Amino acid sequence: MASAKNMHKLVYDCNLEVVAQGWADGCRGLVHSDDSYRRAGENLFIIFGKGYNMRLEKALEWGIRVWFEELDEIGMNSNDTTFTKELHESGMGHFTQLAWGKTTHVGCGLTLCEKNDTMLISCNYRQ
User: Fold this and answer.
1) 62 contact partners, CB below 8 Å, separation of at least 6
2) Is the alpha carbon torsion for 39, 12, 70, 26 positive or negative?
3) pLDDT in tens, 53-89
4) Quick count: other Cβ atoms within 10 Å of Cβ 67?
5) pTM score, two decimals?
6) How far, in Å, are 16, 97, 110 from residue 104 at the CA level?
7) CB-based contacts of 51: which residues, under 8 Å, 6+ apart?
8) At the top level of its lineage, which domain of life is listed (predicted)?
């Protein structure tokens, strides 16, 4: 397996968490926030139905796993992939948010949306 090049240490950012949590609390489903609201990259994940009452940590882990698996779904592997804007827009935007080399900060929020029986996860990424 090839080693990472130019990879920054990822730091959890409580300010990004506050923004992500604020958006998740609105229970808007998979509607992305405006860039001027978050000033960061954003991933959203929704869990429908009664499964939303799983442990919150497990829900967040599930969302991140699904975002990461986009790489396999498109038939690529991380050993020979250069991450570009075009790749991001090819259908693996969630994965590229997780793996973008210049990303240094992440913050996530999640909420139970009882009105539509879902759990919504929002994560924001910034350099």
Assistant:
1) 45, 47
2) negative
3) 567 778 888 888 888 777 776 655 555 556 566 665 6
4) 22
5) 0.78
6) 12, 11, 21
7) 119
8) Eukaryota
